[in-house]
């Protein structure tokens, strides 16, 4: 067992993914590129704080009202933080595309983030976590966490029975 394994509330991660997907879809439907920038900023602030960027909505509103229940699982938090930062970085590149007049690039990059967040939310596969674990496997400095024993890199760990 890895010494970096701790408790991670996957409900907070899923709420974060749902907010990212929803806000980026709203941005696309109503052609509001600044909203893409706002989502990028929230994701990058969350990365700096080492927590889901939209965790405030989970802890301040959804969880206290019983709308979302905690789903605390033993897991490595570092890959999730990396994945969020990677998504935020992709959105920053998308905002740069908007800024230089290439809406197509901006929306394509926003849709990449939507697709990967949806893959994580609905299937339980975190592409950013997968990249993190491969960087760890290649012994890239700063990427030390290993996948949970018996899990495929990037897949959400399952609950232990009992």
Number of domains: 1
- Shape call: globular
Average pLDDT metric: 92
Which bin fits the share of residues in helices?
55-70%
- Tell me about the largest β-sheet: 2 strands, antiparallel
Strand percent estimate: under 5%
Tally of alpha and pi helices: 6
Structural class: mainly alpha
Q: Going across the major beta sheet, what is the strand order? A: 1-2
Q: Radius of gyration in whole Å, from Cα?
A: 16 Å
Enumerate the spans where pLDDT stays under 50 for 5 or more consecutive residues.
none
Helix/strand order, N-terminal first: EHHHEHHH
Count all strands and give the number: 2
Distance between the termini: 18 Å
Description:
- The mean pLDDT is 92.
- This protein has helices at residues 10-29, 33-49, 55-62, 77-99, 103-123, 127-137, and strands spanning 6-9, 72-75.
- It has a two-stranded antiparallel ribbon with strand order 1-2.
- The protein has 6 helices and 2 strands, in the order βαααβααα.
- The chain is mainly alpha-helical and 162 residues long.
- The protein has one domain.
- The protein is globular, with a radius of gyration of 16 Å.
């Amino acid at each position: 067992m890895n010494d970096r394994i701790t408790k991670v509330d996957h409900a907070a991660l899923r709420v974060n993914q749902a907010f990212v997907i929803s806000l980026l879809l709203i941005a696309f439907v109503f052609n509001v590129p600044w909203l893409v920038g706002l989502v990028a900023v929230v994701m990058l602030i969350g990365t700096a704080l080492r927590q889901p960027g939209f965790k405030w909505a989970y802890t301040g509103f959804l969880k206290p009202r019983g709308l979302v229940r905690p789903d605390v699982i033993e897991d490595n938090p570092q890959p999730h933080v990396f994945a969020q930062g990677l998504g935020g970085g992709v959105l920053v590149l998308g905002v740069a595309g908007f800024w230089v007049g290439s809406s197509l690039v901006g929306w394509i990059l926003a849709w990449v983030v939507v697709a990967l967040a949806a893959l994580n939310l609905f299937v339980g596969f975190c592409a950013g976590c997968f990249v993190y674990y491969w960087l760890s496997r290649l012994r890239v400095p700063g990427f030390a966490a290993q996948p949970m024993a018996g899990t495929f890199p990037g897949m959400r760990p399952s609950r232990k029975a009992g």
